[in-house]
TrEMBL record:
Pfam families: Methyltransf_7. This is S-adenosylmethionine-dependent methyltransferase. InterPro entries: MeTrfase_7, SAM-dependent_MTases_sf. Gene3D superfamilies: Vaccinia Virus protein VP39. Belongs to the methyltransferase superfamily. Type-7 methyltransferase family.
Length: 454
């Protein structure tokens, strides 16, 4: 594979440019399209285009920008740790009073910037404080990375006007290479490394022991499903670390804020993000079972007949019904169609799985240690104060809608979104467990890594 790069200058913001990365085959026998036009919310069956979803863009009611206070809490919790590690670990011996080399920072998983900008400010101000008395403060170059379908327009329109850095966008999946060799001094990623590169293939294969039919995540699923997710996560994190190892300079630092779950939790008195994803799955299953009576249109007599039949029996393939209504004959096949005509099909639900995995501290540490390019300088568990900002069922539902809606639209389309999250809100509101933010026991693992000097 070859990577082609293009820089696009943003004339509205002179210090801004957009860097596009496109993977291309070098095999002349393989035909690839020169131009593919995609719109947010488009459904695609082309596996080469899967994963082209992102957090909700813009600044509307369901946008990530308006519904990411939970993630902002992670940045606030990590602030003193990042400042302390930069104060002790950044090597200023390489900087001199005449050095004009910029200090380069990359944020992997920036979304629309609402929480990325405060993090970049923390990093740049900590570096300035570290070197201002001993060397000339360098220019800061910041590379904002996220999925190709991310709303970079909102990101660049939202850049702080008084920022102390030059900005560029780097679209593309972060599990592979995105930047030149040894081009980054400080890498950062927050609330992004729980996303897998794709759903594990075995989970969607009905011939596999790990087929996850009837569920949308590994929570409460069979051991084989969990193992498929766990193995895929380990490979993805290893790929991420290998890519960053090539992009970071020797001695460069990387701060990771990784969504995770505690090693042990009491499911009766607490919940985590995977629990909420499982609840979304139950809403999808309910919608697949619900009969959509709008389908009957004007055939009201048949609708009432179906209602009466469904009260007393379950129609199976071994039964046959021939019924005359308004001089029209309806056979079992039509009745069965009505029975199965839900808002969603069961097949749609069975073929959908969330591509996310929430690790535990011991597992993440072991994965990092197997990669010999980094040393672990600090690793701590953070309690996210942002969870206390989600004080109602509607606030919690909208927060998850801002995160997952693009992914769900890719598979189910836009038509079901309002009903799906209305149902989800109702289920949250009906459970005292979800109404108390203190019952939410998801954790954030803070890891500071240093690139070993080769």
């Amino acid at each position: 594979m070859a990577q082609m790069y293009a820089m696009v200058n943003c004339f509205q913001y002179p210090r801004t440019s957009i860097r596009m990365t496109v993977n291309s085959s070098l095999d002349p026998k393989r035909s690839i399209p020169h131009h593919v036009e995609l719109n947010l919310g488009d459904k695609t069956l082309d596996r080469s285009l899967l994963g082209l979803y992102a957090m909700n863009g813009g600044k509307g009611a369901n946008s990530y920008a308006q519904n990411s206070s939970y993630q902002r809490g992670v940045v606030d919790a990590a602030k003193p740790l990042i400042e302390a590690e930069i104060a002790t670990k950044v090597d200023i011996k390489q900087l001199s009073s005449t050095n004009t080399t910029p200090f380069r920072i990359a944020d992997f998983g920036c979304s629309t910037g609402h929480n990325s900008f405060p993090a970049i400010q923390i990093i740049t101000e900590a570096v300035e404080k570290k070197i201002q008395t001993q060397a000339q403060i360098p220019d800061f170059h910041v590379f904002f990375n996220d999925q190709v379908m991310n709303d970079f327009n909102t990101l660049f329109h939202s850049l702080p006007p008084q920022r102390n850095y030059h900005a560029a966008g780097v679209p593309g999946p972060f599990h592979g290479r995105l930047l030149p060799n040894a081009s980054i001094d400080f890498a950062y990623s927050s609330c992004a490394l729980n996303w897998l590169s794709e759903v594990p293939k075995a989970v969607a294969d009905h011939r596999s022991p790990a087929w996850n039919n009837g569920k949308v995540h590994y929570t409460g699923a069979r051991k084989e499903v969990f193992e498929a997710y766990s193995n895929h996560y380990a490979n993805d994190i290893d790929s991420f670390l290998k890519a960053r190892a090539e992009e970071l300079v020797g001695g460069g630092l990387m701060a990771l804020l990784v969504p995770a779950v505690p090693t042990f939790e009491n499911s009766g008195t607490s919940y985590t993000t995977p629990t909420e994803m499982d609840l979304i799955g139950s809403c999808l299953v309910d919608m697949a079972k619900k009969v959509n009576f709008q389908y009957f249109n004007s055939q009201s007599k048949l609708a009432h007949l179906f209602l009466d039949l469904s009260k007393f029996c379950i129609i199976t393939e071994s039964q046959q019904y021939d019924i005359d209504i308004d001089q029209k004959k309806y056979s079992y096949g039509v009745l069965n169609l009505f029975l199965l005509q839900g808002i969603l099909s069961e097949e749609q639900v069975d073929t959908f799985n969330f591509p996310l995995y929430f690790t535990i501290p011991q597992e993440l540490k072991a994965i990092i240690e197997r990669n010999h390019s980094f040393s672990i300088e600090r690793m701590e568990i953070l309690n996210n104060p942002g969870k206390r900002t989600l004080t109602s069922a509607s606030a919690r539902a909208t927060y998850l809608r801002a995160v997952f809606e693009g992914l769900l639209i890719n598979h189910f389309g836009t038509e079901i979104m309002d009903e799906l999250f209305d149902r989800y809100t109702e289920k949250l509101a009906a459970s005292p467990l979800f109404l108390d933010p203190e019952n939410e026991k998801s954790i954030i693992i803070f890891v500071l890594l240093e690139r070993k000097v080769v």
